[in-house]
Amino acid sequence: MSSVELFQEPIRRRYYAPYNSCSYLFFVVTVWVLVALPFFLSYSENFWLKTNTYREQVSNKYEYKIIIEGSGSSAADSFFYSSIPDLNRLHGDAFRPVSVKTREVDVNIDSLTDTFEITATIPIPASSEVKKLDCLVFFRSQLQSSAKIVMESVVHLSHDSGVAGKELVTSGNLVFRQNNPVFVKGGYTTMYADTELVDTASIISAKEGDIKTILAKAMGRNYTLAYEPQYNYWGAKIDDLAGTFTLNAKLNIPTQDILYTPKPMEVLKDAWVKYLSMFVVVGFFLEKLCSFVYFHQLVETKMLVETVGSTTGVPHFKKF
């Protein structure tokens, strides 16, 4: 009756030598090379993971705070509106009542706003014209996945044209920008709690509510929210009749890469994978080298070959 091979296993050759021999010295050198060489081969300035990224959609909640400022050909065309009453009083005659409507859209129903829409209607006298518009919209931004930070942020919408306009339609993305990686350990951290963008409790001059001053404060932070427009449409004013100027903005909030500082365990895991990848390669070639050297007795050893039912083997000598 014919038979079929079901399983196979190698028979070991065991090599022995005294401690005070060249064979043992060669063994020590190969062990040192096996441990050290993969580290030197895999080591680079990126061996230790300093930063990493993960994907998250930043939670941006409208704080019902807005500042709108416009200008035209003359000082009389300038106007100002804010949802902060103290700022309106500081701008005196430039104040204009503005109708502001906002809408938060959650497309995938995950409790995160995917699109924020804002419509502002500004009454314009027949003698006035608008050639430039600046708008600041304030949000409460929050990272709540790996990193956990909460902060007040501001978005700047702006357009400048040489032609008097009646509307500005803009659409783009709200992007979380960072100069430094965030930390992923611990609970929630409220950023910039001691430095409000608009300190309503101590407004004593118009400069404290000036758009340029607010933007300077925001840009001085390591973490900010920026508006990246995909398109701007400026509708020209074609008559001298009294009417309104309309701002329509659609702000999309995409999922983006968040840069963070990894935990020590993640750093060690990443370094171990890099080391192990070279360890396997070096170990393969060293195993072949040792097999050749010991089998052909390039260094003198006592070789025992295992046989069936033997755990120690029988002596066998071979010179190259």
Automatic annotation (TrEMBL):
Q: Where are the transmembrane segments?
A: 21-41
Q: Which InterPro entries match?
A: TMEM231 (IPR019306)
The domain of life for this entry's organism is Eukaryota
Q: Name one GO biological process term.
A: cilium assembly
Signal peptide boundaries: none
Instruction: Tell whether Membrane is among the UniProt keywords.
Output: yes
> What are the protein's UniProt keywords?
Cell membrane, Cell projection, Cilium, Glycoprotein, Membrane, Transmembrane, Transmembrane helix
List cellular component terms (GO). Answer: ciliary membrane; ciliary transition zone
Q: How does it sit in the membrane?
A: Multi-pass membrane protein
- Per its UniProt record, what Pfam families does this chain match? TM231
Q: Where in the cell is it found?
A: Cell projection, Cilium membrane
Sequence similarity: Belongs to the TMEM231 family.
User: What's this chain's function?
Assistant: Transmembrane component of the tectonic-like complex, a complex localized at the transition zone of primary cilia and acting as a barrier that prevents diffusion of transmembrane proteins between the cilia and plasma membranes. Required for ciliogenesis and sonic hedgehog/SHH signaling.
| Name of the protein | Transmembrane protein 231
